[in-house]
Task: inverse folding
């Protein structure tokens, strides 16, 4: 079988016009997301956001019809490389989009780099993807875990909190989220006095909540998301901690979870690159159209999936649908500035979003924006050696 590389170096083919092969073929996009497990609602919101964007472009990218192949990655890192390889080799996808879980995203990045397949990450925040493993063909429309967590350090310090306990799942995204908060908080003079972790995706928090009650910190900082976030916020209130020890988080905690949590979520302060009430024309339009299409309001995960579609629409538009015109395609994507529902969205040289981080508070079941916690936040992308295209 010819590899992609050998196809473009065959002399006879090189002389043929672009798309002599497969000119009318559809662009195939392989989407890996969790459709089961604790992150299933994130996967559903992500794909619905993506589909809304594609539908608004007539289900075409750069003039070519688009076909989506979906795969439930079950947030299982062990199977990620074989799942991504199956999409590329078995389903012949041209582009990969995914995923939510950082461990699974690491497997996708590995395969994308080995095959030079374009990968757009619509959620997972692992630093390495746009750090040491950054690559011309790897883009992210979400964030690093550091981005929303770091600014919460100053918010917490300014509230007068000095001793904070952190709690999260023991895997890379949780650890990097806590590290981001800690960096911001301790630089100002605060102290993370205890870092509690539970195995992913466990939701038995009783012993941990008893420990937090005994430690009596000024506040608790947390990363949980999806089904686990619902359980944690409810248990926190049921343990009687809500009124005595403020609960803070990266905003994932209260995205897509508010209806299921109900009253115990009210008042929680978080920082994130989106808020339901952002008073921006693009946000209002998006929320209306999403509700119209799916019968419920979107959350951050829908926004990030939508923006993955929007980024591809610009890039493939620039190369008229030629997925093999990689240099031009990546250069165009890199230069793209989106009028996202979250606000102005540009990309750093490492292909990670540069974006505002908002301070939000849950009020009447919505994430209300209070202020901009940090403007145009760019991840330091430590370890990324890539030059701009
Ligand atoms: C991640 O694993 O990177 C992750 C998962 C859920 C979130 C955010 C990040 O809400």
Result:
């Amino acid at each position: 079988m010819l590899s992609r590389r050998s196809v473009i170096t065959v002399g006879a083919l090189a002389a043929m016009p672009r798309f002599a092969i497969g000119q009318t073929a559809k662009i195939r996009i392989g989407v890996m997301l969790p459709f089961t497990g604790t992150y299933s609602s994130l996967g559903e919101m992500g794909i619905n956001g993506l589909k809304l964007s594609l539908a608004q472009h007539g289900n075409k990218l750069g003039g070519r019809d688009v076909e989506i192949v979906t795969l439930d990655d079950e947030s299982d890192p062990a199977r990620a490389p074989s799942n991504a390889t199956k999409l590329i080799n078995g389903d012949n996808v041209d582009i990969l989009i995914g995923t939510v879980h950082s461990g699974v995203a690491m497997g996708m990045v590995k395969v994308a780099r080995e095959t030079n397949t374009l990968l757009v990450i619509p959620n997972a925040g692992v630093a390495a993807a746009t750090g040491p493993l950054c690559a011309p063909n790897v883009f992210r429309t979400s964030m690093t875990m550091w981005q929303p967590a770091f600014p919460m350090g100053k918010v917490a310090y300014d509230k007068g909190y000095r001793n904070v306990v952190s709690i999260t799942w023991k895997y890379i995204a949780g650890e990097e989220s806590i590290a981001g908060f800690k960096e911001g908080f301790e630089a100002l003079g605060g102290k993370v006095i205890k870092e509690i972790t539970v195995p992913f995706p466990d939701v038995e928090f009783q012993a941990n909540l008893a420990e937090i009650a005994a430690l009596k910190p000024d506040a608790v900082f947390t990363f949980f998301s999806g089904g686990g976030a619902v359980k944690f916020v409810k248990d926190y209130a049921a343990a009687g901690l809500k009124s005595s020890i403020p609960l803070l988080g990266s905003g994932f905690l209260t995205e897509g979870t508010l209806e299921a949590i109900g009253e115990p979520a009210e008042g929680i302060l978080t920082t994130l690159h989106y808020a339901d009430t952002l008073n921006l024309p693009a946000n209002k339009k998006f929320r209306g159209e999403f509700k119209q299409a799916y019968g419920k309001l979107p959350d951050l995960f829908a926004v990030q999936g939508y923006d993955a579609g929007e980024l591809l629409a610009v890039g493939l538009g620039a190369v008229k649908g030629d997925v093999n015109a990689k240099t031009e395609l990546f250069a165009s994507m890199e230069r793209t500035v989106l009028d996202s529902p979250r606000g102005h969205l540009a990309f750093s040289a490492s292909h990670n979003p540069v974006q505002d981080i908002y301070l939000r508070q849950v009020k009447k079941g919505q994430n209300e924006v209070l202020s901009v916690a940090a403007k145009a936040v760019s991840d330091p992308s430590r370890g990324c050696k890539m030059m701009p295209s």
About this structure: The chain has a mean pLDDT of 94. The radius of gyration is 21 Å. The longest strand covers residues 366-377. The chain has 13 helices and 15 strands.
